[in-house]
Specification:
- By secondary structure, this protein is mainly alpha-helical.
- It has helices spanning 2-16, 20-40, 45-76, 132-136, 141-148, 156-170, 177-205, 210-230, 252-275, 278-284, 292-297, 303-306, 314-317, 338-362, 382-392, 438-442, 446-450, 457-465, 469-472, 478-516, 532-541, 553-572, 585-596, 599-609, 613-645, and strands at residues 92-96, 108-114, 117-124, 239-240, 243-244, 406-413, 416-423, 432-436.
- The protein has a three-stranded antiparallel sheet with strand order 1-2-3.
- α8 (210-230) runs antiparallel to α9 (252-275) and α9 packs antiparallel against α14.
- The longest helix is centred in the C-terminal third of the chain and has 39 residues, at 478-516.
- The chain is elongated and about 115 Å long.
- It starts with a helix and ends with a helix.
Amino acid sequence: MVKNLFISVISQKEANRGSVEFQVFSFTNKIRRLTSHLELHRKDYLSQRGLRKTLGKRQRLLSYLAKKNRTIHGRMNQGKPMNVPATREDLMIVNMGPHHPSMHGVLRLIVTLDGEDVIDCEPILGYLHRGMEKIAENRTIIQYLPYVTRWDYLATMFTEAITVNAPEQLGNIQVPKRASYIRVIMLELSRIASHLLWLGPFMADIGAQTPFFYIFRERELVYDLFEAATGMRMMHNYFRIGGVAADLPYGWIDKCLDFCDYFLTGVSEYQKLITRNPIFLERVEGVGIIGVEEAINWGLSGPMLRASGIQWDLRKVDRYECYDEFDWEVQWQKEGDSLSRYLVRIGEMVESIKIIQQALEGIPGGPYENLEIRCFDRVRNPELNDFDYRFISKKPSPTFELSKQELYVRVEAPKGELGVFLIGDQNVFPWRWKIRPPGFINLQILPQLVKRMKLADIMTILGSIDIIMGEVDRLEYLKEVYGMIWVLVPILTPVLGITIGVLAIVWLEREISAGIQQRIGPEYAGPLGILQALADGTKLLFKENLLPSRGDTRLFSIGPSIAVISILLSYLIIPFGSNLVLSDLNIGVFLWIAISSIAPIGLLMSGYGSNNKYSFLGGLRAAAQSISYEIPLTLCVLSISLRAIR
């Protein structure tokens, strides 16, 4: 008896272990243990983070229980007049963007809500498409360089780097050591500027306005360095095939070292202000979690991938430029939430400072561009160039023939893997230039992340992804064009079929008439005279309008219109159903015959209005032909159709 009672208690406890109430009870005990532990060890930040995470989970479970109890209470009181929201009924569709201030560009989200819970989310693109890939296929590499900074206009050095790296690898072009060091410095400064301008709007999205103003201090210093070296603050046009456009100016290295020392203090200030802020942690911790398998299956890269526990950085994997000569670490986290993505980007800014300092201290001398490559693979006219150099002093930019090969080149951009698939065709223009933007790939997982989350979490998750619509956008409105085409296809197909049938019947009638009368027949228009009917109609429309002087002008002009309009009206009064199917064939047949019989009246009106007996006889003859030929032919065809249908 006692044994059976003990077994029943154990089984009941095991059955309740998966319930929500049991989980709330376990989280409460865990919170008590962590609280007592933190009273003795106040600086155990890992336990503090675990406590906040447990508190958040328990709060969400309690909210779920309260909502469940309200629903059950409403079902029990269905007879009473109470307005209880029905879950998953009367869903609301909200349009976020492209004008939303937190949309990070012209992105539109169609969100389906059940109260505050997100049921579905559909990103809509196509508001910023500029055809960058097709522009590349009609420009030389040097001509295309000013365009590429518009992909990701916050990390412009990376778009320039991938644009010149592709032809360099295609043509096996060597880059001088000094130029490679300068490239690394510029790339890491651009990474810092991109992460800074991600941090400010991301904090503004979740309600913190102060960091948004702080990040512009360091960002403007980075742009000052860019302006001193390249002449431009954002759109630099600095990278060249085989090196860079210009060497670093005098004093630039010392100025950059001073910036590195100053920026490290700024990063520590951000960490004190943001990283341990309880309001910030409540908004980002445990929100938008991406597992390891999910990150790999979705093709994520950059901080999105490294925040899920995968140490993958192309600077370590591909070892392009001279990154393998510096001492730095790959920043990664294993939780996969929005907080982890924030920590990865903060750590990357510190590592970028380490790389810049090592590059500035060890930068070698020598040329900043491979000048020998200017003499190879150039399309030039010696006579014209000699004249230009001697008299006009016009020095055209060098052009490079891209060999007939294909390759894929990639770099580690601030947002992930930025790649270009290039196909050369022994021409100065690329035959194919396909861009692999990291933001476009990373944005695909957004609908999965926001499902079953709150409406306010959408901006947190979207901000943690870090997208720039200049590289994300694609031509989306083609779907609407295709939809319109498919709507018009059922309408245009019968019209086209009727037109082809009329042309074929007219051609056959003319051939038979010519054979009976033993003559060659009319002049042929088109192959085998198929287009002769169109030629006759065009000739009739543009023919000189001859009106009889003693006849009735109005009656003579109205007659042909009545003959043509009656035929067109015969198609309008036929009772068609859906998909152009006759709803009532019997009524349609008699209406068609009744309306088309008006056509001979128009012919008689034209003959009578001419005030000429020969024209009147011609009208009688045409009316007789219409009655004797066309109406019996119509009756024969319709009788066969009725017989087949019956």
